[in-house]
Write a structure and sequence with these properties.
Elements lengths: L10 H14 L5 H9 L10 E7 L6 E7 L2 H8 L8 H11 L5 E3 L9 H8 L5 E6 L8 E9 L5 H26 L14 H11 L4 H8 L3 H15 L4 H10 L2 H8 L1
Antiparallel strand pairs: 1-2, 1-5, 3-4, 4-5
Helix pairs in contact: 2-10, 7-9, 7-10, 7-11, 8-9, 9-10
Length: about 260
């Protein structure tokens, strides 16, 4: 029985898949990558946090980044990339040891991964874990992806979808990396003048809080929060909250905001 035996797309799913693939081809910058992974990609791989690793994934010349709407989940996932812990490197090894097939880790179902690695992955977010990489590419052009907080227990169909979408993930993350390596293509945080309070509001927007919830957290009125959000959209030249979060990530605004807390 092959992976294709598990695939039965409805017409609407086929249309959604085509749109998702087409949108991936337009990704070249970090905000675009964030919006794509939090948008169309979620229709096929629903997750909370995505850890991306690219470069020579078998060596030390690698880069990694975390894409998540949750600040706490992003911080926890960031621990996987710490060089002194070597969790991502060990995970790559375990993936390669299994013939570079999609790796699924189900919460409460047991695992043949090393216990420390299993705990590190499951501690990053609620839900399950899916792992895959570009198995046919070696050297500096490799890529590796860890989906954390996968909402439904993944099975053969999910493994097939991950293999199907992996080339588009790979190309998108490398286009993003190449764009950031070109001088003058990264948006600097200091180029967009948000106030300290606006940065604070934007950070809570990223965490998925409503205006009412932000008002309670910051001890201000919902109307004041609404005005801050409108100012943020205007200053960032975007039309909605998701675009504002993506642009904030691209300009490293959350690093500044969290350093001030």
């Amino acid at each position: 029985m092959s992976a294709l035996d598990f695939v039965d797309f409805s017409p609407s799913e086929l249309e959604s898949l085509l749109v998702t693939i087409d949108e991936s081809l337009k990704v070249s910058k970090r905000p675009q990558f964030f919006l794509w992974t939090q948008g169309g990609l979620q229709s096929f791989i629903r997750h909370e946090t995505l850890v991306c690793m690219w470069g020579d994934i078998q060596g030390s010349d690698t880069r990694f980044d975390v894409f998540s709407r949750s600040a706490s989940a992003a911080a926890a996932a960031g621990e996987l990339g710490r060089f002194d812990r070597g969790m991502l490197t060990r995970l790559v090894f375990e993936w390669q040891r299994r013939r570079c097939e999609p790796l699924m880790l189900l919460r409460y179902a047991g695992s043949d991964l090393p216990e420390e690695l299993t705990s590190a992955l499951l501690d990053c977010a609620d839900g399950h874990v899916m792992v895959h990489g570009a198995k046919a590419i070696t050297g500096d052009n490799g890529s590796f992806f860890v989906f954390l907080g996968v909402t439904q227990p993944p099975g053969p169909r999910d493994a097939y979808l991950l293999e199907l979408l992996l080339p588009y993930l790979h190309m998108a993350v490398h286009r993003m990396a190449q764009c950031e390596d070109v001088p003058g293509t990264m948006e600097a945080a200091e180029d967009v003048l948000l106030s300290g309070r606006e940065l604070e509001v934007l950070r809570w927007v990223r965490d998925g809080k409503t205006n009412q919830e932000i008002a309670l957290i910051l001890h201000i009125s919902p109307l004041t929060v609404k005005n801050h959000v409108q100012n943020i959209l205007r200053k960032l030249n975007v039309t909605n909250r998701a675009q504002a979060v993506a642009k904030g990530m691209g300009a490293n605004m959350f690093v500044i905001s969290e350093a001030q807390v």
